[in-house]
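Morning run. Coffee first, then this:
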Amino acid sequence: MNDLNVFGCGEFRYRVVADWPRWPVDWNVIEVVGVATDSQDRVFVLSRGEHPVTIFDRDGRFLGSWGEGLFARPHGITIAPDDSVFCIDDFGHTVRKFTPDGQLLMTLGTHGVPSDTGATSIDYRTIRYVGPPFHFPTNVAIAPSGELFISDGYGNARIHRFSSDGRLLHSWGSPGAGPGQFHIPHGIAIDRQGTVYVADRENSRIQLFSPDGDILAEWPDIARPCEVAIDDNGRVFVAEVGYRAGMWPGTQPPHSGATGGRVSIFDSHGQLLARWGGGDNPTAPGDFFAPHDIWFDSRGDLYVSEVVRAAYGNAKPPVGEADFHTLQKFERL
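And here it is:
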């Protein structure tokens, strides 16, 4: 085994799997915004290409696709315990629930109609006040109760709590950097006790809440987190975009050596267990340019997606676009 392809430490050591997955010939996925696994360890990949939802087995073999023509811009994907698939369409301002083969079951929000927050663009700094669902929503998490918690992120600064059948129950949050405030609530996850973890991206922290929105804790050792995933043992996996990609106009890294994209693993108390990446060589196996989502399968293997095109925007990337990762698999050792 080549140790250059082994990452993490202690209990959390991984080997990057080369050439995973095997995309159909001539497909342009553009960038992979989300990844999730179902009860059969099938891997559902959400991309911004012509075939938004693509399904692979754990060995990377192509199984099928769906979602063509449905999304204004895909942003996030979550799979429920019953294997239903939730997809976030941020530019469409909707959250939709599908069967695993793509049959629509429920829609939250009105497609193409944002709520009123005074925002004039996807730039969170244009938000003037909070509003109802949704204005550029970002991700969804499913509580043990079956309730849905949705981060409403670029054009709002709220977490919305819905019943399992889609009734709005409660919302919390406002623009800002104080406790319970957000500058892009970008990712969201819920542990087995019902604690809500929110990736507060532009505040470079994770905030923990009760299901009612009471602030419980803040984890600051985070570099612009995009998404959070929590395993059955309460370990918290974080995809961090870092400070070398996707910076908003007029913003600067906190210091000249600030980290690039990376993955971090914490215990349930916020103690760091493992970390790798940093963006020093973002096209190398195991390093990252712009991590956007993270998930795992039943064997503990990790899947990390990246949004290269959105992250460099109008700037020229440091190397050719085709050299960057869209999706990496890390096999747990």
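The chain has a mean pLDDT of 95. Good start to the day.
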